[in-house]
Predict the structure.
Amino acid sequence: MERTASVSADPEQRPDTGGRCAKCRSWGGFWVLGLCNNFAYVVMLSAAHDILRKQESQNTTAPTSATLTVDFQAGNNGSSSYDCNPVSTAAVLLADILPTLVIKLLAPYVIHKVPYGFRVLFCVVMAATSFLLVSFSTVVWMSILGVIFASVSSGLGELSFLSLTVFFSRDVLEGWGSGTGGAGVAGALLYSGLIQLGLSPRITLLIMLVVPLAMLISYFFMLVPPSSLPQWGAREAEHAAGSSEETQRMIDGSDKEDEGEEEETSTPGPTGPLTFAEKRHIIRGLLKFVFPLGLVYFAEYFINQGLMELLFFQGFFLSHAEQYRWYQTLYQVGVMISRSSLRCLKIRKLWTLSLLQVVNAVFLLFAVRYQFLPSAWIVFAVILYEGLLGGASYVNTFHFISKETEDRHREFAMAAASVGDSLGIALAGAAAFPVHRYFCSL
């Protein structure tokens, strides 16, 4: 660690994280990290309908399977007007989000003890394992276990990479947001497209093993990290290395302020460990961001996993499974567009986005109950709009947290605030179960 301290203290030996080439590489690196981090999560949700149907068909005998098909089309009592899976796709959603939620609730308090390099390696292994488990599964629990591995990878990756942005210029947050939006489109579109072309879900998931490899390459070869980044060493050791590194950071920060670059560049890292009282104070200040973000994600995932499966139009040129997959794809297109819009449009009134998303959820809830929509094309438009609201809420929330949080608190704040979307999603998954049961029993 002595070598680390001496390198950090010498501005001449630091990577040029402020140079244009280095900035472009880091922006691109964060874009790929965002894409890879959310990819498995998105694919598991897009495959939810297929996962449940595949297990039901594989675990029944031929006569029972025929009976199941009739019950599937008519619901549990044989008289439902909805085309219902015996198990709601919310089961996959909960498996996809609960491990993420637990990680985001607990990890911000201890994750600083684990260097970023080890975190990335762990995320890569978890993501690859998830694709393998789901592709070769023969029973529901094995598929759900694969989804859980994807959730662990995505949750740990999100809070780690959001924290990592504070070591780079602030515009890498735009790259991260755009990449996570791109993951939605790439994951949902690639899965839907390959299935549409005739590939089996198993082959499709095996092809996607290239994504964890891309995450590895992006982190270790695309990013231009500053020497203050705790790559392999413990954070506490760096704090004990001496005050020369901190003094140099303060000097560097002053120079950039004088050059008018304070808006563009974040402080390279924290100046000391935060106390538990400080962390509680930071969390209280984050509530104004976390609550609107959680409400947006509650409303949109209530739609995605509670209502989407029930928005089935007979006589449409797409089957039920195909309609569901393309709903998911259009939602992700909206997310990608809005998460990539930060440079053009910033929205400070986050509660407005939350309320608009709630209106969407109520409208589609009534549409499912009273079946007054004449065509799936209207649902396609609403789902695209839903994605625009959700993506805008996410990227603007973390932009303003990064902008309004003190330098010393920023790394912890970015990680802690990430619990907002996961909490909303988990509550939406829980709410989707009784809704699914109610409609399927009508």
Observations:
- The first helix runs from residue 2 to 9.
- The two ends are 66 Å apart (CA to CA).
- The mean pLDDT is 80.
- The chain is about 70% helix and 0% strand.
